[in-house]
Design a protein that fits this description.
- The structure is a single chain.
- This protein folds into two domains: 2-198, 3-Layer(aba) Sandwich (Rossmann fold), CATH 3.40.50.10330; 208-365.
- 30% of the residues lie in helices and 25% in strands.
- It contains 13 helices and 16 strands.
- It has helices at residues 27-32, 39-47, 68-73, 90-99, 112-122, 146-157, 174-178, 211-224, 237-245, 270-277, 305-311, 322-326, 340-346, and strands spanning 2-8, 57-62, 77-82, 105-110, 128-132, 164-172, 184-193, 230-233, 256-259, 262-265, 282-286, 294-296, 316-319, 333-335, 348-355, 358-365.
- The protein has a nine-stranded mixed beta sheet, sandwiched between helices. Strands 3-2-1-4-5 form a five-stranded parallel beta sheet, with helices on both faces. It has a two-stranded antiparallel ribbon with strand order 6-7.
- Helix 2 crosses helix 6 and helix 11 packs parallel to helix 13 (340-346).
- The relative contact order is 0.12.
- The model has no long low-confidence stretch (mean pLDDT 88).
Length: 369
């Protein structure tokens, strides 16, 4: 019988849709703003892939929301190896991961902070894999989406995927992040099952040489803007350049709203966006994350499934430098809204502005090719 270590950070991702750019130290504020827990639902999407081997699999997990509740609900054989209280902490994650040292694979759900805690517990001595459930997910120890994590876990446990590799565990300073500064640190490496199509890449910063391209892209987007419409401007250095050219203050890691080339509102959360969309036709200007190629689901959870259902693909404007697209090596731009139906709706081809009067047709997909 194979053993799976299952570890869920139940509050992971709560700060995203309410505009907090993370949940570390902000749980109570996230609750005050109306955030709901989604980590268990995303983990369930991963565990569905393991149902075919449920009778031959023993799940080692912490008690309650950190793993036990979901595993039992889905009918897995469960052994609780760590007991935690209702208010879980990083120390609980570390202790629980250590208690699963005998598992064939450790499957954990969260964001970069959770990956950092797992690394603290097991180092590079345990094969582990992340289910993306947090706000900031820069570490390539995570699968591109929960379903991919489940498929890769199944392949590894069945012996079809025998290859592992070291993948970076990185995390950012959340306090600086909320102030618009991105300070990323490398904390170590985890051993992960390796099948390229299932795993996300490391996030790559935009080199300074791209600045002139970004300015040209900004002018092309400005020329395409129509009067009296709302334009949501997503996070990223390329979209920041658009705001710089318009001489408007921006939220580097948030979502701003402009109309007639003037700022309407800064740093909107999901509910702010939905209210504004009731006022007039709304478009979205967005750029993929460097190296990873994610349009949605990584650091911009304000742009939720509910928002994207109303935006649709026809009101989506994608900006990207040629260098950023080149480093994707032909892979599709990725979406992970948390709603498979919305992800399918967004799948297809989109025009990407790559310069002044220059566009490139790129695919949007929910999986790597």
């Amino acid at each position: 019988m194979k053993t799976l270590g299952l570890l869920i950070n139940p509050i992971a991702g709560m700060g995203g849709s309410v505009g907090l750019k993370g949940t570390d130290g902000m749980y109570q504020e996230a609750v005050r703003r109306g955030a709901v827990r989604k980590a268990n639902a995303r983990t369930a999407l991963a565990l569905k892939a393991l149902l075919p081997i449920r009778d031959d699999l023993l799940v080692l997990c912490p008690s309650g929301e950190m793993g036990e509740d979901l595993a039992r609900e889905m009918g897995f054989q469960v052994k609780v190896v760590y007991s935690c209280g209702p208010d879980t902490t990083a120390e609980d994650t570390i202790a629980a991961a250590r208690a699963m040292a005998d598992a064939d694979l450790l499957l954990f759900a969260g964001g970069d902070g959770t990956a950092r805690d797992v690394f603290t517990a097991v180092g590079d001595q345990k094969v582990a894999l992340g289910v993306p459930a947090g706000v900031k997910i820069h570490s390539p120890v995570y699968a591109i989406r929960p379903e991919a994590a489940g498929e890769l876990a199944l392949s590894y446990l069945k012996g079809a995927c025998g290859q592992t590799r070291e993948a970076e565990v990185v995390d950012i300073d959340e306090a600086a992040y909320r102030e618009g500064r991105v300070n990323t640190s490398l904390y170590g490496y985890l051993q992960v099952p390796y099948e390229r199509r299932f795993l996300q890449s490391s996030k790559a910063p935009s080199p300074l040489s791209e600045r002139s391209q970004q300015v040209n892209i900004a002018w092309e987007m400005i020329d395409q803007m129509k009067p009296d419409l709302y334009y949501l401007v997503g996070p990223g250095s390329t979209t920041k350049t658009l705001m710089d050219v318009l001489e408007l203050p921006d939220t580097l890691i948030g979502v701003d709203l402009i109309c007639n080339k003037k700022l309407v509102q800064s740093d909107l959360c999901e509910q702010d966006i939905l209210k504004r969309m009731d006022e007039r036709e709304t478009h979205l200007i967005i750029t993929p994350t460097g190296g990873q190629g994610f349009l949605l689901g990584r650091g911009n959870q304000q742009l939720s499934a509910a928002v994207m259902r109303r935006i649709g693909r026809e009101r989506l404007h994608v900006l990207a430098t040629q260098e950023k697209l080149f480093h994707l090596h032909g892979a599709p731009l990725l979406v992970d809204t948390g709603d498979p139906e919305v992800d399918r709706m967004l799948t297809g081809y989109v025009r990407v502005i790559i310069g002044y009067m220059e566009e490139q047709i790129c695919p949007i997909g929910a999986e790597r090719q």
